[in-house]
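Query structure, 261 tokens:
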């Protein structure tokens, strides 16, 4: 079996920055163990698998260790592959997912805009060991269905945080978001998810489902400009629309080939 594979840097227009994702195009679903093995072999934070359906594509995402319910940068990468590399007709693609419902993606010139669920966070107490593992003292702590959000005092504090990933992996949540107002954007963030095999994710679209409603409320504006200030870095253009959020960015192709199974 030959499986087409692409590697795309998402949320950037500059190669070797943004968040790399693998995109695999399947004729039909194969055994989940093989999907997980492919993702582990790719050894990227996410591999997206696409299967054509009557309305668009079925979409699933795997880290090197597990399947996840929602991934932004791999969705952006998958849409980029379909629009740019494989000549998808039209400006819209509908993805059907197992746990996040229908996701609509639209091509807007060099940008790709994704319609995602909004996940407003609520206040919570800090889990045992979290602040020590992060090495920072948050101003506020919030939680969502999967992640913990810590609001810090400045972009500099977010940028300079040096977590203990071993200790962070013992905190009971999918991932930890740290965020602050940006010096040249509305807000900045970083995302850590060692429990699902991703010590630090370079740019995390799904985390912005939590960040967008939070910062829209704090800043009293619905259109937001964001940077994820990991080592690779990425830029996102966001909009809050109540039960949905819009996340828009660019992408660039790094690799095209095939997997032999």
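Result returned for the query:
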């Amino acid at each position: 079996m030959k499986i087409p594979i692409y590697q795309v840097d998402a949320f950037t227009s500059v190669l070797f920055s943004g968040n790399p994702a693998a995109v695999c195009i399947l004729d039909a679903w194969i055994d989940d163990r093989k999907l997980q093995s492919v993702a582990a072999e790719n050894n990227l934070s996410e591999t997206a698998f696409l299967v054509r359906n009557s309305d668009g594509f079925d979409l699933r995402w795997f880290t090197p260790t597990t399947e996840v319910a929602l991934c932004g940068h791999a969705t952006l990468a998958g849409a980029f592959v379909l629009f740019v590399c494989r000549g998808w007709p039209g400006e819209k693609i509908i993805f059907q997912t197992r746990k996040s419902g229908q996701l609509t993606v639209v091509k807007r010139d060099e940008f790709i805009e994704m319609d995602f669920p909004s996940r407003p966070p609520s206040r919570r107490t800090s889990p045992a060991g979290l602040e020590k593992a992060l090495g920072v003292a948050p101003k506020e702590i919030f939680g969502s269905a999967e992640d913990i959000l810590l609001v810090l005092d400045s972009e500099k504090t977010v940028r300079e945080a040096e977590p203990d990933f071993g200790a962070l992996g013992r905190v009971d949540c999918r991932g930890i978001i740290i965020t602050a107002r940006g010096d040249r954007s509305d807000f900045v963030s970083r995302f850590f998810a060692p429990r699902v095999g991703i010590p630090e994710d370079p740019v995390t679209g799904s985390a912005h489902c939590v960040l967008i409603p939070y910062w829209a409320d704090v800043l009293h504006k619905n259109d937001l400009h964001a940077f994820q200030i990991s080592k690779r870095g990425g830029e996102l253009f966001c909009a809050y629309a109540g039960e949905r959020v819009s996340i828009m960015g660019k992408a660039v192709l790094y690799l095209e080939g095939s997997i032999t199974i």
